[in-house]
Every structure is written in C-alpha cells, then in structure tokens.
Amino acid sequence: MTPDLVGGVESPDYASHDRAAHEPYVAVFTGDVKRELDELLTRYPTKMAALLPALWIVQRERGWVSDEGMAEVAGFLDLTPAYVKGVVTFYTMYHQHPVGKYFIQVCTTSPCGICGAEDVVKAFLRHTNAGELGITSPDGKFTVIEVECLGACGFATPVMVNEEFIESVTPDKVPELLARLA
Amino acid sequence: MGFPHHPHPRETTVLTKHFGEADARTLAGWKKRGGYKALEKALGMQPADIVNVVKESGLRGRGGAGFPTGMKWSFMKPGDGKPHYLCCNADESEPGTFKDRELMRWTPHALVEGCAIGAYAIGAETAYVYIRGEFTEPLHWMESAVKEAYAAGIIGKNAMGSGKRIDVHVHKGAGAYICGEETALMESLEGRRGNPRIKPPFPAVSGVFGMPTTINNVETLIAAAPILLNGAEWYKKMSLSSPKSTGTKLYSVCGNVQRPGTYEVVMGFPFKEFLYDLCGGPLHGRKFKAVIPGGASVPIQNMEEAEATLMDYEGFVAGGSMLGSGGVIVIDDAQPMVTVIARLARFFAHESCGQCTQCREGTAWTTKILERIRDGEGTVEDLDTLLDIGEQMTGKTICVLSDSCAVPVVSGIKKFRGEFEALIQGKRFHPVTAAVA
Known about the structure:
A: alpha+beta; Arc Repressor Mutant, subunit A; 4-stranded mixed sheet; disordered N terminus; B: alpha/beta; Rossmann fold; Ubiquitin-like (UB roll); 5-stranded mixed sheet; 4-stranded parallel sheet
C-alpha cells in the first residue's frame, strides 16, 4: 500500500483497517441476530429508538461499525445512512475503524489523575508496544486510549479491556494483566 | 457501608445494606431480604397516595439538582389519554460519582422495584433504565434482574397479579457524559445525538417520544421502596436536618483519602467527621487541601469550608459548594490545583455536545489557557481572561454543562489563586514539600 502523506509525514499504518474495509461486507442482521433486532423493536414506540442498541449489535458481531454496517442498520430502521453516521460519530464507544484484539481504555479524569492514572497509561503503552495512544500495537493485539471518567473513581485506576471492567490498576499490575490477555 | 471496606458504625445503611452480598443480586436472594414487598404494597394503593407519601417524606432528587421527587411525580397528570414514561437516569458520569454503579451491581432488583413503583405512581406502563455503556457489570446485573422479574411475573403485562402493565427495559448508552442531562438522555433514547433540548417544554409535558415523562436518578427510585414500606415519618426522622433535607444519602468518596468507597449517612452529618473518621483521613504524611463534595460540577471547597459543613442540601451551599451527586473528590497537598482543574476543564471540553457557542468555545479555551498556566507558560492576564470566560459560560446555554466547567475554574481561582500566580511567575510546585517556590 502506498502510504498517505499528511503534511509530508507518513500517516500511521492503517493496514489492518484497509484489509478489513476491503473485505466484502457480510450482513449482520440475519437469523438469530435479526430476531434479536425484532425483539428490540417491540420495546420502543418508534423504530429510531432501536438505533443505539442496533449499532451495539453490529459492533458486537463485527468488532467495529463500518459504513456498510451503518447503512444496513439504516435500512432496517427507515433512516438514512447519513443520519446514522451522524449518531455514530456523536458517541465515543462505537469504533469507526477496526481496533486491536484488546481495546484498552484507561481513565485519566481528575479523580484518577490525582491517584496516578498517567503512570498506568504509560505502563500500558510501554508493555503493549503500542507506543502511542490510539495506535494499535504492531502485532494487532492492543489499542490503548485514555478515556473520560469511567465512573469507578473509588477504585482508581479503572481500566476497561473490551467489555471487561478492571478496578484498582497500578503500573506494577500491568504486565501481569497483559500476560493474562496474551 | 464504606464499601468495599467494612461498614462503619456511624453509617446508616438503608440502601447500601446488602452491598457485597452476591446472593442479594438474585431474585430469590432479594426476596429473602424483603424485596418486592414495597411494590406489592404500592400496587394495592392509589397512585396519588404513593405520590403523597413520597412528597411527605421530603425525598429530593439524588442525581444532582435535588428537586423534590414527590412534586416531580405530581406533575404527571393522570387520565390525559397519553402514554406516560418513566426514565431512570443511570448514565452516572459525573467525575467522582460511582454510587449508582454500586447500587446497580449489588442490588439490581432494588432498582427494578423502584422503577416499577415509580412507573405505577406516575401512570406509566414503561420504564427505561438508561445505563452508560461503560458500566458493563451494572448492565449485566440489571439485565439479569429484569429477566428474572419478567419470568416471575413481577413486571410485565400483569405485574404481581395487579392487572397493571409495567414494562422495564434496560437501554445501553454509548459513551457521552452529556446524556446524563435529562433532555439529552431522552434524545439519546430516541436514537438521536445526545443534544440537550431547550426547556420548556419540560419533560412532564413533552418528554421522551413527545409524551409526558418523569426522569429520576437510580438512588432516588431505590429510596422510594423503603419509604413506602416504613412511612414518610420514618424517613424524615433519620435525618439530623429534617424537615429540609430528609433521609440518608450515598456518598462516593475518591481521591487522596485512606478509605475511598461508597458511604451512606443521614442528612446533616458533620463533613469533618465524615472525612477524618469514616473515610480515615489523609494518606500517610499528607494533609487535605481541598474537597469537591458533589461531583466535578460543584464549587471546590477549601478545608476551612469543608470542615465546617453539615452534609445536606442547605449545608453544602452554606459551605460554599453544593451537595450535587454526592461524589466527594478529596485532594491532598501533594496535588497541584492547577493540574487538577485543568484536567477537569479538559473533561468538560471533551464532553461538550457543541450546540452552544459559549460552551463549545468556552470549554476549549478554558482548557488551553489552564494547560498553558500548568506548563509554566501562563501570563498575568490569563486569570482575568479565565474569569471573564467563566462569566460568559454561566447561565447562557441550553444546559448546564457550560456552567459546570466554569464552576471549578472560577472557584479554584478564587480559593487557590496563589498557586495559579506562582506558576505564572515561573515558580514550580513541589509535590513532596507541597510548597510553591
């Protein structure tokens, strides 16, 4: 792939992104998953209200929410793909491109910040080889980001690894935690 | 119970009594602890009578604003021919606050019961529990409790055999602090971007799906059950500051303190004893410097103010702050205040929905200026600029996120001006000696 030039500097390698994006799209809402969506629709007086839950299903099934995924959801809920994209981009938890196998979110808002969250972030970046926030490690396993208040401030520093919520993480616990994942 | 620590004898555990008991999370375990008796009682009462008991109890909203719950419920006019909705605000995202998380992951059935009582009282057949997406464990337990309650016929088309339909649905958010603002939550629930709405119309007139809606915090709804069972007088009597602030309040304590956790004390409890006795005081060798007592959006207290405060709605105001959500952030003398406040401003800048200019621009510029002061590149004009921006951000926007950002900044500059000025003058903050030199 020819690297894109952004301001004369090579942009980060999104090889995995491109690979996933170029694979033919496989519909999410078939069989049991379609039935799950049908059940969801009974909970609300409008189809549109099922949008957030439907997007969660796409992310659960595919690991991220692609433009094709948004278009598929739009079709079922009588919305336009542009509208769905507008909603997706408002929220932080929908991945708009593929992420590492383990998506690691470290809370660094003030209550955790004053308990040493910055050092936890550094430890994750070092031990995962991701090097930089938001960049997936070369082995495709880890993406580390800082996240705003995870709502577990008394258990500083809380960390989310995919759907798993881990409390009271300190820098010295990071290698062990990663070893368990790998 | 100071969870996860052992309960402190000076706590009054009503809502937190069963924290840490894995068995309380199941329907059988919850029933063994007296669960769903309040709902049974409620379904045998007239909705207006339930509203009156709650009104009489003096229960006020536990999410931050402190609006009287019974009065809020009474705004829902029965027999208007429209579907009514109850929304439970479980989008707990206020930095420093994690009490609702604990309530949902330890006593999920208490919230199902609270939602069912609330829905019945306001003439709603449907309650939505909007839980922030990051709360995977509370989501798991709430979904499991709802499923169990449906299977047992406690909720559903004939709730506890009453002939009344009460549906409770868990709705997962997707990462947006602003969705804790009630009208943004409703927008989000409808499948839109979480942009707050202009009020009026208020939710009781036109809320979610354009229908009359009541929105209550998790703790508020859970408190309704023991009030119905034990009566309004019982609830009022627990408080040291009755009749203005009644009952117990949950506080989630975090930051530089010996025993962070979730505590439940009666209204009017002395804050000084709470911080030093219940929470164990400062870390070894350190001193408390400041407290943000009600989540990141309330004014910062210095220790003089905090130690003189009685913990209730009026007491925190008298102490230069607000009760807010009960998220107590304790800051010790090793922390540079400018760094703490700059990070809070960054939070608000990240979470601004961007609708209103004052907020979108104000939160971003406040953050930039604070970070440059923090990095030793501030100028003498910066403090006045920050105060000026703060004024422009207050009372001028659709919702209060903008105000919330200005509050810690303005109160921080007012109460800890010396630290700002020292950094601007090129001095450095030494965390070990806690001196600016």
